[in-house]
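subagent[fold] <- orchestrator: predict structure for attached chain, return tokens only, no commentary.
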Amino acid sequence: MTEQASGAHHPQPRPRPSGQQSASVEHVTGAQSLIRSLEEVGADTVFGIPGGAILPAYDPLMDSGRVRHVLVRHEQGAGHAAEGYALATGKVGVCMATSGPGATNLVTPIANAHMDSVPLVAITGQVASSSIGTDAFQEADIVGITMPITKHNFLVTKAEDIPRVIAQAFHIASTGRPGPVLVDIAKDALQAKTTFSWPPVMDLPGYRPVTKPHAKQIREAAKLITAARRPVLYVGGGVLKAGATAELKVLAELTGAPVTTTLMALGAFPDNHPLHLGMPGMHGSVAAVTALQKSDLIVALGARFDDRVTGRLDSFAPHAKIVHADIDPAEIGKNRAADVPIVGDAREVIADLIQAVQKEHADGHRGDYAAWWNDLNRWRETYPLGYDQPGDGSLSPQQVIQRIGQLAPEGTIFSAGVGQHQMWAAHFIEYDRPRTWLNSGGAGTMGYAVPAAMGAKAGAPDRTVWAIDGDGCFQMTNQELTTCALNNIPIKVAVINNGALGMVRQWQTLFYNQRYSNTVLHSGPDDINPQARGTRVPDFVKLAEAMGCHAIRCEDPADLDKVIEEANAVNDRPVVVDFIVHQDAMVWPMVAAGTSNDEIMAARDVRPDFGDNEDD
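subagent[fold] -> orchestrator:
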């Protein structure tokens, strides 16, 4: 079992040490033991679908007064809902599926959770232990399939092992670098008689996450920070996972260094803070991308130097020394060599850095970043985020998303699919609180938004939850709106409907001579059936109404605020708004794939001019 990265603070019931006896022993089936174990580890919501191999577990689940089961329409929806629940609440998300295709349908959300360090426990039924390896009906080696994309996984063939394995799974998923853990349980283990006692004896000799950073490395980092002229705090999702946002704000204000927050870290540092430069990366702000490129010191906190941030790696931040703090030692030096590597939980690392920087200040060593801020402010003012209104009077997708953010109740949670609407949601909604932005960053999973929003709303029922989705993404997982309608999970969905796979179309516009091969989603009815002119396929309003939702269509910019306010006012069922937007809107800024961040374009045919004096 290999430890992976980004500290978590999710208290789980502590297992008893070896030799200590349990207070009571119950005689139960393995299935009853599973449900009792879920109750004891604090799982209150499970997203899943029953089937033959997992069916024994569903009978005692019906009797549980502590675990709510949400019957989804597709196992992928169960996995993404468990992710959304975990990200919104900070607890472990739980999903459940049967063997074979039920389990394999969880592969995408498991991979997603692995890439984005989301604490997830996936419980799958397996054929009877005597049938494993025989190609029995609905058999799949889900342990083997998921081994590269889980933090750890278990195959349980004995009923007496279930409590210990569940306790271990929740502990592994939620500590160190959070991540997904698979528990595959043979059907005969669920049916067998056993005893249940809690807490179980838990022994994980190979699992010892290092959370406390080395003091010498902290001192070295503090010296570099106060000696630098052009430092940048490069903040990744690990800061959110570690619950270190308050400490980050103290460190930033103490040093006066600029802050960039990655796509996975939005909300870790207030967007409206004067030290915040925005999001770095392929579609990051000009100021954030350029600050990293021209820095002389990058302090990476819970970030992994992802290719979407670095651009062409050999040209990334050529003059910068690197302080890289992460709870996963495998991440440090993986893509960019670190001058000062720090292994530890982000919260403890930042807390110790604060003390070390304060000592440097007390000793008379304080960074002078005045010239640096002159440059940064000039880039911010010259190349702000913005967009053009369509000339034909149609809806601008950026304006739609911006107004949703501006009119949303305080504390609203936003989830997004993947593509243009994801980038616009990252840019034009202001994130000032942690755990208010859910998206698929590492895997880039289309169809993530609706089920993730469902999970977030199930975990935080008193919060407003908006899913910002594209019409392509929406058609992958919108069946979970039925789940929302039937389970009193009133999410709100904005379909940014440009009739195309927008981000792919943008690349075809820029790099493929406007040859739009298989990216148009709405063509057909006018040509196939002249009597059907004006028909929308699918008609998202009719589709949403058929699934028990309140549905609205918005095409006129004059109606935008009224429609959003109507959506916000409906709280007794899910709401879907079909926003018909201009198809040629593009995401800017942009660094083309495989190129250097030095080649960032602020807008189409607009390359920023930084002046020769800034190239040192």
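orchestrator: received. Logging for downstream: Residues 1-14, 16-22, 524-533, 612-616 have pLDDT under 50 and may be disordered. The radius of gyration is 25 Å.
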